Fold this sequence. Notes:
2 copies of one chain form a homodimer. Chain A is α+β, with helices and mostly antiparallel strands. The first copy, chain A, folds into 2 domains: 254 residues, L-amino peptidase D-ALA esterase/amidase, CATH 3.60.70; 119 residues, Ubiquitin-like (UB roll), CATH 3.10.20. Chain A is built from 12 helices and 16 strands. Chain A has a 7-stranded mixed sheet, with helices on both faces. In chain A, strands 3-10-8-7-6 form a 5-stranded mixed sheet, with helices on both faces. Chain A has a 4-stranded mixed sheet with strand order 1-2-4-5, with helices on both faces. In chain A, strand 13 and strand 14 form a beta hairpin.
Amino acid sequence: MAKSLPRSPLAPAVFPDLPEIGGLRFAATAAGVRYQGRTDVMLAVMDPGTSVAGVFTRSATRSAPVLDCQAKLGSNPEHGAAILVNSGNSNAFTGHYGQTSVAEITSAVAATTGLPQDRVFTASTGVIGEPLPHERILTKLDELNGALSGSAIKDAAEAIMTTDTFPKGAATTITIDGKPVQIAGIAKGSGMIAPDMATMLVYIFTDAAYDQDKLQALLSAQNETSFNCITVDSDTSTSDSLMLCATGASGVDATDNAAFGEALREVMLDLAHQVVRDGEGATKFVEIQITGAANDAEAKVHGLAIANSPLVKTAIAGEDPNWGRVVMAIGKSGAQADRDRLSISFGDVLVAEKGWVAPSYKEDLGAAEMKKDDITLKVDLGIGTGVATVWTCDLTHQYITINADYRS
Amino acid sequence: MAKSLPRSPLAPAVFPDLPEIGGLRFAATAAGVRYQGRTDVMLAVMDPGTSVAGVFTRSATRSAPVLDCQAKLGSNPEHGAAILVNSGNSNAFTGHYGQTSVAEITSAVAATTGLPQDRVFTASTGVIGEPLPHERILTKLDELNGALSGSAIKDAAEAIMTTDTFPKGAATTITIDGKPVQIAGIAKGSGMIAPDMATMLVYIFTDAAYDQDKLQALLSAQNETSFNCITVDSDTSTSDSLMLCATGASGVDATDNAAFGEALREVMLDLAHQVVRDGEGATKFVEIQITGAANDAEAKVHGLAIANSPLVKTAIAGEDPNWGRVVMAIGKSGAQADRDRLSISFGDVLVAEKGWVAPSYKEDLGAAEMKKDDITLKVDLGIGTGVATVWTCDLTHQYITINADYRS
């Protein structure tokens, strides 16, 4: 963890140019929670009238900040809201001490920003099981509050990184009723990524107005086919948090607007894909398209079984078109499959069909597909109309190197 | 695959001295199915009156030999039985060609040995999705039949190896009604090991007599807490097969004998542990003891979640007492847990209790436990009386090296 990792070969060339969102300001600072020589705390403050929605890990051992955020969802949006996030320490499995830290931080942020405490949300990410030195954060609150700026979103994205090798941001602009509406988000995450229940740390903001209850429903639905369809290593964080805040500063009410939902999905998928592209040790970005399953839920089970299989992931790392391992993963998934109706393609190359290798398949065609940085695996179960798409990365020596020595 | 792997550092010093089992003879030969310069086919032939039981993978993409064996369970034991196994090619996902190969082999073995075809069982292990060149096996049947010997069990254990770095055998002798009864078994397996449904290739023999239906029930029950409680990499084979054959040559009927059941369990656990000790790239043998879960099934879910977590397995590889990752795995398992009732020990060192690090815990105590070759992780959920023990190994660079280049 202490050592600096090389930037992922799958990283985007540059951090995108994110728009300012009316009614929203950021600040970041170096509090020395665990890391030295970098920022590790970010504060976001939103104007009165901001709707806040969130989706969180369902881990049975979820962290104190997650439990606190969940309790506060639905609190009154009249008063605005704040989000404070630290990296370096997850404040997870820290007993009653963990709850005390959250209470101290949210109380102090409320006092500093003038917000009610039930509109102050926090998250902590980093090592599990060590007490959070929250005093280091408290002493920085006045500085953070004084530095709040509408243009500091990249600083915020950098402050929440842990083993990430690049900061993650995405944005889009749409027009509703002739007026522009902005959506921008940031994310962190590269390991312990299998958000079958929720996600890593993701914060998305819009200047649209949006009914808070309906915003929650929208976010939960979109999450199922974006963040809940990625996996790096099948391990699920105790701190996963996804929040969406709608300030209303644009003067446009986007509640139930279909185009807004689509635009939000675009930003969520962009961030989700960036998390996979920063998967620990990743050298390949893999999209797995499942069709013909008994139903959508079973399609996702098949997709995640393939995406989480160490043998599939190491074959991809070795650029080996080893479709036998894909067959194995489908077979073990527990979802319905018929060996003799399966067909499998790597990119546009049909590899196997009707229970055996396709007559047209040649090993060099499959091998050429596997040499690409971005690989698409297509599986048709031949049973029904269920579909799902999931995204993952390969499993390489660098994953072992990073994780066999994280705490040292 | 072609390259020879170094012997696992966790391997037993020597292959055990296995007893001859009355009514049972073996032979092995090199048929060149895929490998050169080594044996790759074994034949076992048992006398009339042998009861045969089997447990097989429930993979939805299981192989033609597995489907054939399952169809033959329960056939008449009066006629004896034969088992033929080849390594190098799993005859899985080979369409109708695969069924033809099985029919050709079982028909020819029946003709050669004088057994009915429904008492000839086969298995194939190795690469998936390539046609089995069964003619190479057929031409060796007369040689195998002529070489059958009561003392060739080690030859059989060697012939069924694939990525195994050592042959696996185990045996025990018990006395029933004043007479000695022998149990001896062999196994192969080191990767694609997560027999949540069945197991790898295991063949166990006894000279006890045993009612065939009750033998099947005994084997299925014992399997649940032995082979079904090990995992190397969470991936489940399309060929997993466990068979138990009781020749009756001792003249002792062991049906429903409790001591026999215990002795059988001992042999099964010994073989299961050897498979874990030969886990691809393994440098640590890990026993995970779960207590205090809501019930036994939930205890096993927790145990396997820990055992299959890449982050737990890489921490063990790095000799890092990273109990936070154990908490994470418990949290994601889906089984019931209460963060504040959990306690975790490494060996006899209490690490965490009541939702936080134990007051007595010191990092150097945990670190010393992690330096051992054999590591015990104990988790008490503090909820109920459910217990389970599972076994696994660590996840190392060598696993990546072996599996990123298997087919090349």
